[in-house]
């Protein structure tokens, strides 16, 4: 049975007083149930001092910070290193994993040993709104504390603006296509505002760190790493903000026939689970305008909508058939094909250099054939064999100039090999970065 945050804290406080506090807890519940606040209160109880927003030298918080809004294995290894070190204040150490359902599989597997047997004087708190997305091996190693919201969820400033725009759209008697696109434009404006706010906050935090650490000996390298960190953090927080706006929009359209539910636009009355159940079991009569606007908004998840094309035009675009074939392959074959595609792109870029080297080799072969009295075909064979295999093959040059040409051909062949190897290494690098 789900608890309120106060009820859960009372039970856990009693368990701690009787020395029955577990080493790892999984705090679950919908948005607005107080998961983070409960974790903050538990940290204050364990550390025996006041804690604000999980900020303490012995509290190590892990949350999604990559561009894909996932928790990476590097973050979990950093948490393990911090937990195995001695406490800075000689007390308890606490690891808090926010949005634990965003753990990458390899990060979750790397964390299992520490989750099962954490270091001494250490506790782990995992927060998740979607516990069914976690691995069974993680669920079996934690004691779950389910929470329920005790009051209506308060909308954020951006959500309030979106609900205001939706209210204005709903008050129109017969909204048409122009009004639908106006709503889409307002949604895009809110997304841009969210990104600007996140960038401003991240830039302020980065400047604060820069002023603090710029006097150190390795400040240059460290600041470059932190700049990459803040770029990924901006993308992660932007994805979270975009998801909250899309969730608000979908909930609004699910409640479209009920005017009373649209009146209280300052609060979201139903948490995520009830919203999903309502969308599953209720089928309100939606107009084509609603379908059109919802489809336009959903396209904003990843990229702005592309111009419409006919099926035949899309099929004839370069790479479309290859990409369709890649989607049908398993992961290993996708990696191989991606390497082939990237390698082909690299060859197309350096092809002028390669074709120039081959042309020079052919010219030297024709000159060698003329000096040695060979047929031109044999001269071409001699040039290509010497260049690609670094050997004479069946023809041994006797003319001094032809022997010099043989050395030049060997050097050209080595150059071509180096260029092709560089293209292959670059293709491998692109494939590896894509896999990450």
Could you explain how this protein is built, in words?
With 436 residues, this protein is an alpha/beta fold. The protein is built from 16 helices and seven strands. The strands form two sheets. A five-stranded parallel β-sheet has the order 2-3-4-1-5, with helices on both faces. A two-stranded antiparallel sheet has the order 6-7.
Walk me through the topology:
Elements: H1 5-17, E1 24-28, H2 35-47, E2 59-62, H3 73-84, E3 93-97, H4 105-116, E4 122-128, H5 136-139, E5 143-146, E6 153-154, H6 157-170, H7 177-213, H8 219-254, H9 259-263, E7 267-268, H10 272-281, H11 288-298, H12 311-315, H13 320-327, H14 331-372, H15 376-389, H16 400-435
Parallel strand pairs: 1-4, 1-5, 2-3, 3-4
Antiparallel strand pairs: 6-7
Helix pairs in contact: 1-2, 3-4, 6-7, 6-8, 7-8, 7-11, 8-11, 14-15, 14-16, 15-16
Could you give the order of the helices and strands? HEHEHEHEHEEHHHHEHHHHHHH
Number of strands: 7
What form results from the Cα inertia axes? Answer: elongated
- Number of distinct helices: 16
Report how far apart the termini are: 39 Å
Structural class: alpha/beta
Q: What's the multimeric state?
A: single chain
């Amino acid at each position: 049975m789900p608890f309120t945050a106060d009820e859960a804290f009372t039970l856990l406080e009693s368990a701690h007083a009787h020395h029955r506090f577990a080493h790892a807890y999984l705090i679950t519940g919908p948005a607005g149930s107080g998961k983070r606040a409960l974790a903050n209160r538990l940290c204050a109880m364990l550390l025996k001092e006041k804690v604000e927003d999980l900020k303490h030298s012995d509290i190590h918080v892990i949350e999604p910070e990559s561009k894909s809004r996932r928790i990476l294995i590097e973050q979990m290894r950093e948490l393990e290193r911090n937990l195995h070190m001695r406490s800075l204040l000689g007390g308890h150490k606490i690891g808090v994993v926010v949005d634990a359902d965003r753990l990458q599989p390899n990060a979750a597997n790397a964390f299992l040993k520490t989750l099962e047997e954490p270091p001494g004087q250490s506790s782990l708190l995992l927060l998740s709104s979607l516990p069914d997305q976690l691995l069974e091996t993680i669920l079996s190693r934690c004691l779950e504390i389910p929470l329920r919201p005790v009051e209506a969820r308060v909308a954020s400033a951006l959500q309030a603006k979106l609900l205001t725009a939706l209210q204005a759209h709903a008050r129109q008697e017969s909204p048409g296509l122009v009004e639908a696109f106006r709503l889409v434009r307002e949604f895009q404006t809110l997304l841009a505002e969210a990104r600007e706010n996140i960038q401003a906050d991240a830039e302020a935090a980065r400047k604060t760190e820069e002023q603090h650490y710029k006097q150190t000996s390795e400040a240059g390298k460290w600041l470059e790493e932190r700049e990459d960190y803040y770029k990924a953090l901006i993308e992660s927080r932007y994805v979270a903000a975009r998801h909250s706006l899309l969730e608000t929009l979908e909930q609004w359209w699910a409640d479209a026939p009920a005017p009373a539910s649209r009146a209280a636009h300052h609060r979201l009355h139903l948490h995520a689970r009830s919203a999903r159940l309502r969308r599953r079991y209720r089928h309100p009569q939606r107009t084509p305008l609603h379908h059109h606007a919802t489809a336009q908004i959903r396209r904003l998840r990843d990229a702005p909508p592309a111009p419409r094309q006919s099926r035949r035009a899309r099929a004839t675009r370069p790479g479309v058939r290859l990409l369709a074939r890649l989607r049908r392959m398993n992961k290993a074959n996708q990696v191989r094909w991606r390497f082939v595609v990237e390698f082909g792109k690299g060859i197309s870029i350096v092809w002028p250099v390669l074709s120039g080297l081959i042309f020079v080799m052919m010219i030297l072969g024709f000159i060698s054939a003329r000096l040695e009295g060979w047929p031109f075909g044999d001269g071409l064979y001699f040039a290509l064999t010497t260049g690609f295999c670094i050997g004479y093959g069946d023809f041994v040059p006797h003319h001094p100039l032809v022997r010099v040409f043989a050395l030049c051909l060997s050097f050209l062949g080595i150059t071509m090999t180096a260029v092709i190897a560089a293209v292959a290494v670059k293709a491998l690098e692109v494939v590896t970065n894509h896999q990450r």
